[in-house]
Write a structure and sequence with these properties.
By secondary structure, this protein is α+β, with helices and mostly antiparallel strands. The chain is globular and about 75 Å long.
């Protein structure tokens, strides 16, 4: 009986050892070491956009997709209507569910192609998560989404860059992926995420996420606090600035008129 019990214990320990080795092998098979610099973007008085550097180590034989995603929000769109040969604003359309910022790049241009039938990233993946309500009428979802993308891309808040990330083999083994995201000058404060997806043989084998914060500093932060906590004072200040600006513009034109 002792011999049988000892054999069972031995077999159990061997199985546990194999399980640990298998799990260890899985962990070692997908090292990423994702780094984001800077991890905090500060928007001050002279902020005019910034560059976000992303780097990661991935296993040999893998490709990568890098995504920079903001919080989900909503966008108000105006439907254009033609009346007597002239275009005017019509019904309002409300978009819900899309991130306030979405930038993506890949090491292989095919991975961000819109021809991908089952995308895990890119514009097609976003299109499936958002909705349009209000004055939609008989406009197709695809057409609304294309107009939405055109608006976001013009503002620099959306962008797809197939093959925009570099990849090189490291002497010590593995591969290094690098990418640079250009942040727009008008960037909402809040929490963002950089997502690394490692792909092998067309399948996502691992994902890693690093947070990114966008904060207001200096004068923009003071204005934001004033507008949200002291609305009356903010309104008086805004009216005063508008009056002062008009007065200064009038003086400038008066001075120019006298010189002429």
């Amino acid at each position: 009986m002792r011999c049988i019990g000892f054999r069972k214990l031995k077999i159990g320990l061997m199985c546990a050892g194999f399980l640990v080795m298998a799990l260890w092998g899985e962990v070692r098979a997908a090292p990423s070491e994702l780094t984001v610099r800077p991890d905090v973007v500060r928007i001050g008085t002279w902020y005019d956009g910034a560059k976000l550097h992303v780097r990661a180590n991935i296993p040999l034989g893998c490709q990568a997709v890098l995504e920079l995603t903001g919080e989900r929000g909503q966008t108000r769109l105006m439907r254009k209507e033609k009346v007597w040969g002239m275009w005017k604003n019509g019904a309002e359309i409300l978009e819900r569910g899309a991130p306030v910022l979405y930038l993506a790049m890949s090491t292989d241009s095919k991975m961000l192609s819109r021809s991908n039938r089952a995308p895990s990233w890119g514009y097609d993946a976003i299109s499936k998560r958002i909705s349009f309500t209000g004055g939609v009428g008989n406009i197709a979802h695809r057409q609304l989404f294309d107009e939405f993308l055109r608006l976001k891309e013009n503002r620099g808040r959306y962008g797809i860059f197939p093959g925009g990330a570099s990849i090189q083999v490291l002497p010590e083994g593995g591969q290094q992926v690098e990418g640079v995201f250009k942040l727009p000058s008008r960037l909402p404060r809040g929490d963002y995420h950089v997502v690394l997806s490692m792909v092998k043989d067309g399948r996502v084998v691992s994902k890693e996420i690093q947070p990114l914060k966008v904060v207001l500093t200096g004068f923009p932060a003071a204005i934001f606090q004033l507008a949200h906590k002291h609305a009356l004072a903010y309104g008086i200040l805004a009216a005063g600035i508008a009056i002062l600006s008009g007065f200064l513009v009038g003086l400038i034109f008066q001075f120019i008129g006298k010189n002429e």
